Amino acid sequence: MRISIGSDHRGVHIKAKLIASLTTAGHEVTDMGTDCEDSCDYPDFASAVCRQVAAGECERGILICGTGIGMAIAANKFRGVRAANCYDEVMAEMCRRHNNVNVLCLPGDLIGDRPIDDLVTLWLTTKFEAGRHERRL
């Protein structure tokens, strides 16, 4: 799967770990930045990722900021993007099954050292149920 990933300064370490694990799992990952801990504006990275997802250049996007909230707000302004802020496996699964979310927003400050590979893998592999949920989108 082609995945675009971006973060602000508060998610840079988690982004690096995710890129490594996603690449190892066979995904094609496009890193849209940032690569340093210098303060920066999360909407810049949300825009870069969401443009790729909206254009069909990448099937999914992952965004990371301190809480994930700002990234989700910025991402949902793009036509064709459905973003959700998730911090556990239940939310990651349900946002895919019922809402066909194509951009996952993660809270860098709240994840800490907790491994998130399982959460991201679950999100990537969960299928949209369509049916009654489709008319809502």
Describe this structure as you would to a colleague.
This protein has a five-stranded parallel β-sheet with strand order 2-1-3-5-4, with helices on both faces. It is of the alpha/beta class and 137 residues long. Helices cover 42% and strands 18% of the residues. Helix 4 runs parallel beside helix 6 (117-125). The relative contact order is 0.18. The two termini are 23 Å apart. It is built from six helices and five strands, in the order E-H-E-H-E-H-E-H-E-H-H.
Key attributes of the depicted protein:
18% strand; alpha/beta; 5-stranded parallel beta sheet; 6 helices
Topology summary:
Blueprint lengths: L1 E6 L4 H13 L3 E4 L10 H13 L5 E6 L3 H7 L7 E3 L3 H11 L3 E5 H4 L5 H9 L12
Helix pairs in contact: 2-3, 4-6
**SSE-based structural type:** alpha/beta
Mean pLDDT: 94
- Low-pLDDT residue intervals, each spanning 5 or more residues: none
Strand composition percent = 15-25%
* Contiguous helical run count: 6
SS elements, strand count: 5
Shape: globular
Spatial order of strands in the largest sheet:
2-1-3-5-4
Q: Mind summarizing the main beta sheet? A: 5 strands, parallel
Helix content: 40-55%
SSE string, helices as H and strands as E: EHEHEHEHEHH
Instruction: Output the radius of gyration.
Output: 14 Å
Taking the alpha carbons of the first and last residues, their distance comes to 23 Å
